[in-house]
Structures are given as C-alpha cells and as structure tokens.
Amino acid sequence: MPIPPRHEAAFLRLTDAARRVFGTHQVSVTLLDPDASRLPLLEVPGLSIIGEQWIVVDFAGGRRLELDWDELGIERALSLLERRQRRIALDKSAPVGLPGWIESLVGTRGQVTVHAPVAEFDLEVRVKPNRGSALPFCARLRHDGNVVVEGDRLEWWTFGGDLNDDGEAAAQDLIEQIVLYGGSIRRTWRGVTLLDEHGDYFAGPTSGQKLPLRPQRIHFHAYS
Questions:
Q1: pLDDT, tens digit, for every residue of 84-115?
Q2: 154: Cβ–Cβ under 8 A, 6 or more apart, which residues?
Q3: 73-78, Cβ contacts within 8 angstroms, sequence gap of 24 or more
Q4: What contacts 48, CB < 8 A, 6 or more positions away?
Q5: Where does the pLDDT of residue 211 fall: very low under 50, low under 70, confident under 90, or very high at 90 and above?
Q6: Rounded Cα–Cα distance for residues 97 and 57 (Å)
Q7: Radius of gyration of the chain (CA)
Q8: What is the sign of the dihedral through the CA atoms of 208, 198, 87 and 40?
Q9: With bands split at pLDDT 50, 70 and 90, how would you rate the model's confidence at 35?
Q10: Is residue 91 a contact partner of residue 101, using CB atoms and an 8 Å limit?
Q11: If you write DSSP's letter for every residue of the chain in order, what string do you get?
C-alpha cells in the first residue's frame, strides 16, 4: 500500500532537496517492492531515506533513524542530506590520511597535534577544542587500519581490524559528530553510548572503566 498523499508530498520535497544538494546524477529514487508496499526509496552517496510509517534514514555505517512525518522530522531529514554533502566535500578536499582529515575538520575551532608512535600504535592525533564545553579526544592509528578514539569522558572506541570493516571511515563518523554537532554520553553499568545532539542513538555501547551503578548523562557542545 503506498504512503498517504501528504507523506508523498513531503517525500517529494526531500527528493527535490537531494537533487539540488547532490545533483541529479547522484540521486536515485525507486520503489521498494513496487508490486506490493510501493514504499519510496531515496538514495544519495552514503545515505538513504525510505518513506514508511516514519521517515526512515539509513546511514552507510549501519545507523538508522526514524523521524516523524511532521515539519520537525522533515526539516531534520533535510539537514541530514545537507550534512552528508558537507562530509563528502570535506572528504574530497582534505589531505589523504586521518590526521590531515582531522586537521581540516577542526580548522581554527581547536588545536590538533600529531605525535610519534605510542605503544602498539603508529601515530597519535590529539585534539583539544577551544570551547570549554566541547569534548577533547585522541585518535590512535595502526598500519592495519585499526583506529582507536578515546578521551577521559568519551572512553575507548575501537574501529577496524576486520577485512570488511573500514575503521577509518567509522572513526571519521564519530569524530565528525563530536566536532561539528556535539551530543551527549550516556554511562551505565552496561557500557558507554554516544547520543547525537537530539538525544538519539549514535554509536555504542562500548566498555569503559569505573562505570557507574546509576545512569549518568554527560552533555557536550560542538567545537563552535
């Protein structure tokens, strides 16, 4: 059963915006199960949107958001399309390698220093924001593609180490959220979860040291 006309009009709005932002050649619009459900599917590089009971946003890294068909949900879906385009532009313009990418992302919003090998890692990138309410972190890289992002409040996040796992790209997703958009960290006895600036799930849980018996929520701002 196709989506209601009001939702169809909203989906067309998203489609038109995607074509303006990405260009027609990078946008695909099809129907999921065209003989039955006829749900519209919008795809751009690294992100797809499905018109279901909700506006379902799927990210290349596996994250999924379900947004309401109201103005707030539509505006948020539009902003996610624009964010994705900004990320693509950054990836194209930044120097090759994670250290150069981080320096391009942070810019004048903070201090980025690159350090010699530490323990089993080949390189360490330390990032300190100019803004006191933002989150400092350290990224450690190995030659096999394994990346660790850690900080006093952030804990320890490991990416890569698997043939089918792009550790650098996954680490970039986490770092982009921390630097450009902020969010919050939820700490429970089960582990540490990163939430985006709207309080929605972003990544995790990951293990941490001295986890609390009662849940804790630590908010942090973007770098500017």
A1: 999 999 999 999 899 999 999 999 999 999 99
A2: 135, 137, 178, 185, 192, 194
A3: 74/10, 74/13, 74/14, 76/198, 77/14, 77/49, 78/13, 78/14, 78/17
A4: 41, 42, 57, 58
A5: confident
A6: 28
A7: 19
A8: positive
A9: low
A10: yes
A11: -PPPHHHHHHHHHHHHHHHHHH-GGG-EEEEESTTTT-EEEEEETTEEEEESSSEEEEETTS-EEEE-SSHHHHHHHHHHHHHHHHHHHHHHHSPSSHHHHHHHHHGGGEEEEEE--BTTBSEEEEEEESSTTB--EEEEE-TTS-EEEEETTTEEEEE--STT--HHHHHHHHHHIIIII-EEEEEETTEEEEE-TTS-EEEEEE--SS--SS-EEEEEB---
139 token code pair: 């990224």
Tokens of 190: 């089960």
Q: Tokens representing 2?
A: 């196709």
Interhelix angle for 98-106 vs 71-93, to 10°? Answer: 130
Place of tokens 């879906």: 77
Residue 135 corresponds to which amino acid? L
